[in-house]
Structure formats: structure tokens, C-alpha cells
Amino acid sequence: MNDIEEALGVIWHFRERGNNDFKAINEILDKGTYKGIAGELSEGGYVKISGNAIELTPKGEQLAVDITRRHRLAERLLADVLVISKGELDKNACEFEHVITPEVTDAICTLLGHPKICPHGSKIPPGPCCLKAGEKIKAIVMPLTQLEAGDKGRISYIVTSDHPQLHKLLSLGIVPGSEFVLHQKYPSYVINAGHTQIALDSEVAGKIYVAKI
Q: Domain span at residue 187?
């Protein structure tokens, strides 16, 4: 079943980029799992192959979304909590994703504050827990705005589609892994990062996700 999940995850990744080219996808599947797995996926009702196009069936899409969600949440957990280097994330996440139950997956998601992107910038499919109003477990990764003055934190990730804004933050040293102290929250958020003091408005501060340390 692990190979089936891995293969569906690959097809989902291609689909996110708007690519359903069977030949290209099949080459990756043959190398990453085993030769002929595409035919097995078709026989199992996970995909539909028509000409040079491969499409996920509802059955295949459900499993593909599930494995993608587990993999990317595993990467977030490894990066944000265990502080594993980015180069080691994928290998470890691939092993982890196959052993966590739906309940554990939702618990990890809640613990991390329902992250929307993985460490590589790909979207994390939302789960049932993301739709609930209340959180049963206190998040350890949260928007900077939830910290109190004097708290020390570590940048986990930044959620923004505004590239100029992102580049500006990165140029100021606000990058994943960097540590800071929240100096004040009003009238603007001011953080001390190393020898630099940086002022942020509440909208920008709310897009910066951090772990309290």
C-alpha cells in the first residue's frame, strides 16, 4: 500500500502544477516505485488513463490528498519542532507519513496551528480539524501577534503571496530559523533580532508564524 500512496502523491504533485502527461509521470513512477505501477493504479480504480493523459479518480484523489497532507505536515513537524535540516526533511517525512493515523495527523495539524504551507512552500491540503472553530491542543506554532512583549521566538515560516513584501522581510533578516525577542506590541510590533530592531504593522506580523522558545 505504501507504493500505491507514494505513486498517488507523485501524480497529485504533477496535477498541482497542471501536468497530467502520462509518459512523463509514468517515467517518474517506474523509477520511484516499481515498473508497471501505473497499470496497477488503473486496475485498482485509482486513476484513469486516456491516451497520454492520466487522471485521478475520486477514489485516487481522496487517497492522494490524504498522503500529501500527511507528508507535508510531517515535514512541518520535523522542521518546526525537531528542527531537522531541510535536506533531510523529505526522506524522513516519507517514512513518517505511512505510520501516522488520521487522528494523529489532525493532532499534529492542530499542534502546529493548522499550517497552510510546507517548508518547501507547497500548500498543505486542509483536514477536518482545520474547519473546527476551537482548538483542542494549544498550538506551538502561531502568528507572531499571539506572543506577548518580552517573549522570545523562532521564525517558522511566512504566509504571503506578496513577493515584494516577502523579499523585504527576508532582507531584514526575518527568515525561517532566525530567533528574536518581541520588544513591544503597540502601536506597532517591534522585534529585536540580533543587533537589529525591526518594526512591523499588525497585518504583516500576523503573516509571520513563529514558535515560542
A: 141-212
Q: What is the pTM (predicted TM-score) of this model? A: 0.67
Dihedral angle, C-alpha 61, 66, 67, 68, nearest 10 °: 80
| Separate counts of helices (H) and strands (E) for the chain | 8, 8
Burial group, residue 124, by CB count within 10 angstroms (0-12, 13-18, 19+): buried
pLDDT tens digits, one per residue of 82-108:
778 778 888 888 888 888 888 899 989
Question: 75 phi and psi, to 5 degrees?
Answer: -60, -40
Q: What pLDDT score does 158 carry?
A: 86
In a domain, 91, yes or no: yes
Q: What is the CATH number of the domain that holds 163?
A: 2.30.30.90
- Please report whether residue 188 resides in a domain: yes
Cα–Cα distances in Å, from 59 out to 63, 118, 133, 159, 191? Answer: 7, 24, 28, 31, 48
Measure the CA–CA gap between 64 and 114, rounded to whole angstroms. 19
Q: How many domains does the chain have?
A: 3
Cα–Cα distance for residue pair 131/3, rounded to 1 Å: 30
Model confidence pLDDT, tens digit, residues 120-162:
889 999 998 887 745 555 677 889 999 999 999 999 888 877 8
